[in-house]
Write a structure and sequence with these properties.
Length: about 60
């Protein structure tokens, strides 16, 4: 049950990251920081959400 919970929050963080990227360019690290500081996701959730994310406004 706990693993399913973590996947759901990681997926929510990924969807939020995509929404954030619609508004402008972000580096992967700044996107993680935004997810953690402004949206209150955990470091693990934010990292998992953006590690394989592909988006035209995501810079590495």
């Amino acid at each position: 049950m706990l693993e399913e919970y973590n996947i759901n929050y990681t997926e929510r963080a990924r969807l939020r990251a995509i929404d954030i990227l619609k508004n402008g360019k972000y580096s992967r690290s700044n996107l993680e920081k935004t997810l953690i500081d402004q949206w209150k996701f955990t470091k693990e959730e934010a990292t998992n959400a953006v590690k394989d994310l592909k988006h035209e406004n995501l810079t590495d």
